[in-house]
Amino acid sequence: AVADAAAAEVAAAAGGALPTGKYELVAVLTHKGRSADGGHYIGWAKQKDGVWLKYDDDDVEAQLDETIPKLNGGGDFHMGYIFLYQAHTFSSKGAKAGDEGASAAPATETMEA
Q1: Rounded distance, CA 34 to CA 36, Å?
Q2: Rg for the chain (alpha carbons), in Å?
């Protein structure tokens, strides 16, 4: 009963959405260069359709999914500095607190890039 009340409070605070504890990477800020005094910052963002875009000043290019896990630096390659995640939630409408989400429709908050 206490868990149900706590879940109801969380859902009400989140506009009727229950957290799942799962997150999806949706954006990365990287630095490319050998020192903090020199180099270049680049933004990477995942669009609603799942396509990753690289924002390099005025140039915007679509990227392969395989590129994103490689943003861990090394030599002159991009080093990820800031990572943004989006929480996955389930709609609490029609679902009881404590349900596994089987009857709840998946819902996520969206982020425009």
Answers
A1: 7
A2: 19
Q: Report residue 66 as tokens.
A: 């395989």
Question: Do strands 38-46 and 59-63 pair parallel, antiparallel, or not at all (unpaired)?
Answer: unpaired
Per-residue pLDDT reduced to its tens digit, 10-44: 666 666 677 788 999 999 999 988 777 888 899 99
Which residue, chain included where needed, has tokens 């050998």? 34
Whole-number percent of the chain with pLDDT over 70: 65
Q: Is residue 98 over pLDDT 70?
A: no
71 SS3 class? coil
Provide the token pair at 78. Answer: 């991009």
Tokens encoding 108:
């996520």
Take residue 98 and report the two structure tokens written for it: 């404590």
CB-based contact 54:47 (threshold 8 Å): no
